[in-house]
Predict the structure.
Amino acid sequence: MTDRVVAEHIARYFTSGSAIRRMFEEGLRLKASHGADAVADLSIGNPDFDPPPEFLEALQRVAALKGHHAYMPNAGYPHVRGRIADYLNQHRYFDGITRDKIIMTTGAAGALNIVLATLLARGEEVIVIAPYFVEYRFYVEAHAGVVRLADTDDHFDLDIDRIAGAITDKTRAVMVNSPNNPSGRVYSRSSLEKLAALLTAESERRGHPIFLISDEPYREILYTDEAFVSPASVYRNSFMCYSWSKSFSISGERIGYVAINPSLQTDDWGLLIGSLAMCNRSLGFVNAPALMQKVIAESVDARVDISHYREKRELLRQALDDGGFEYADPDGTFYFFVRTPEAEVDFIDRARKHLLLVVPGTDFGRPGYFRISYAAPRPTIELACRKLLDIAKEIAGEKVPA
Amino acid sequence: MTDRVVAEHIARYFTSGSAIRRMFEEGLRLKASHGADAVADLSIGNPDFDPPPEFLEALQRVAALKGHHAYMPNAGYPHVRGRIADYLNQHRYFDGITRDKIIMTTGAAGALNIVLATLLARGEEVIVIAPYFVEYRFYVEAHAGVVRLADTDDHFDLDIDRIAGAITDKTRAVMVNSPNNPSGRVYSRSSLEKLAALLTAESERRGHPIFLISDEPYREILYTDEAFVSPASVYRNSFMCYSWSKSFSISGERIGYVAINPSLQTDDWGLLIGSLAMCNRSLGFVNAPALMQKVIAESVDARVDISHYREKRELLRQALDDGGFEYADPDGTFYFFVRTPEAEVDFIDRARKHLLLVVPGTDFGRPGYFRISYAAPRPTIELACRKLLDIAKEIAGEKVPA
């Protein structure tokens, strides 16, 4: 008798695994054997910093109330949805969005999953812009969709021709992530307008809408002078997926939302909102965590302080420049996506020998790169900078032996 | 151009909808037109009572800490998993379970979904005991599984012969829910031992294990003198799925766990636990809400006070008896599952005209019944009792005209 417990396809996923997870485990091993202080682990995008004081104060206030902890409507508390709608209007994300077009979700991952579940019939295609967050593939395939990749250009900007080339009669949606994990690129308004024009024309030509799913949890972590332009605001048939995981450093709390562009074309809003709420329930999320919804409603205006990211970014940029590494200057996020100065696998291996943990570009669908996350304590960043220089020297030494 | 937004199968689910949801909406309409006090809504199983004081105190303590809100391992905080393991050992659910066999989840719905995702290959079958919680079908089908129903006997006890008859070479698991929603039945040890013997024999005969998935969020809401026997403790190849939604009245917070029977047969525990944790992430749950994990770790021993349920149960039982309704006396939960004294659809309609909202048995896979939930305020219960008597008299009057 076989004792097969785990389904074969799951065991295969697990064993082939994501490099990020392997890195994580390798990191634990290296830290155990060399001491945590000796390892510069820049592999995980997990901001573990203090949330904004407004959030922490709201949390204490809400916890002290003898409030309700029961189910609310699957879309979330009406007053919380109303608060998010106000915020989105105030900050000009949308023009006159109302709370009935907001669904509170279990983080952005929950948001993306209920949107995909609502939109996708078996075999329909979702165009994902590569490099991309590795979990997107799981999300699309979980809802019987098919991922088609469209590479960005070398500066990680949208390549409209490649996106056009990836569209077929089965295309149901395009997923974009701006600011982008791993590249840090923020798509410009003009770039997004070209995308919107393409999707409008292709929707018209093919006789059914192609939707835009915009994943934007990094939008407050920006280093440019220009205001952020939400992709979901530029194209009417858009779903905005957001979470406070990155901006508030509360990724463990699983709180986010879907906001639907109020100009989306439908003659049945009730069906659309109802289906998203139904999927929230039937996928097992049920509703976004009750307490966090209330805390967010009281702290949504909190200022996001990115000064520490800015400093770490400058440190790393200096080290990368000194080491002669090539990278496209990121506009946002807490990542650098850097060209490997030798074969990717060799570089990752070399870095690991130096006790520097980074994620190979292959994991994001763009081989020949590595991702650095600077959502890490400053001493770790400083250690990593020294290691990057050592590694660069070592490679240079091998290339040009004395 | 069509403006189809929602996928056809989702629109169909939504439109055909669950009767519970239709009831909910009908309830809102009736309350709006007749006044909330005039409607006895016993349709929803949503306990909206004060959580135990230990929980509320722990919540305030944890909220006041400047703690972490970042991602933790996808399986949950090690210390929280350890606390649950201790609890399960102390209360003799398992003999020597360790924290590595516990995965913290987004409620029991999250727990069931990651177990099904981990176990099921496309087309594999899950036997569900009917009457059953309507969402089970969504959960199984979301992971490409096929539901096969096995009816209980007329007392809502397990019918081992029917379960045996439902087993095929494709059977991957049996799902049980004790205490049962909607029947309130708790399966006895002897009944569970027969089930275990059947599954052991069939696993042996067919050369692959058949798993037991035990959904037991109602296990503290018990009115019998016998201690609860967890189905997951009686059969080794079992997954226990639990949430504090019902016991602590915190269904909105989405906190629960999977505990794997430590005697489960596998030669690769790492693969099994890793796959469950991976599914937690890839299905979009990522991890159970961080703050609630910590609160639960500090309040898991809280006493669950069911005295108010006991009182409401007695009120309803009296009314049902006085009205001549037929029902199998429930052992637990906050439900009665009652035979309709006329055609189900007529009865539900008649009840609605009396402003009494209950859920038809058809929604649980057992036509000819209706479910009453007494997770409602006492005045609502008292109102419902009067309405049940009025309805019984009305039906009797129609049957035997004066």
Notes: Chain B has a mean pLDDT of 94.
